[in-house]
Design goal:
Length: 176
Amino acid sequence: MGQSVPPPVPPDPDDRIPETRTGPPEPRRHRDSLAAGLAAAVAAGLLGAVAYGWLAEAVNRQFGYASLGVGALIGYAAAKAGGAHRALPFAAAALTPAAIWLGQLITVALIHADLFRVSATELLFEESGFVTETWRDSADLGTYTFMIVGMMMAAYTAWSKRPERDDPPEQPDHRD
């Protein structure tokens, strides 16, 4: 009975067995960011305007249904980047007419660049008065109608594609 028991040796942290999770991973909490949503909406608007201009120039005519695609693109980008911020559908709707208008200006510049044998960027930046005047002369009720429909599409897409809120808004206590 003269043998003593040595004290326990603390385990080496590198030798631990990693814990394994069972079940699905926890969902990532999405932060609602108005700035990220606006930045994504502006970038999508510029991309949509260029695509609108190239597509309309390829078929050599403007068509209003492309404004639905521009609006949907802006709304989708705003919702995915900005989360469930309540102002994003309105911001997406407000940015859509500018993107559609820019796309129509690009179309006018691309079509007239072929006719005048100059570059489209020269027409857009150096002869912008000519481009806007040509657009103004060709704009009709359908042009403005499709801008409004594009706005509605942007707002609808931004609202329907936003993620669910992680924390429900607090309800006011109306007890008297």
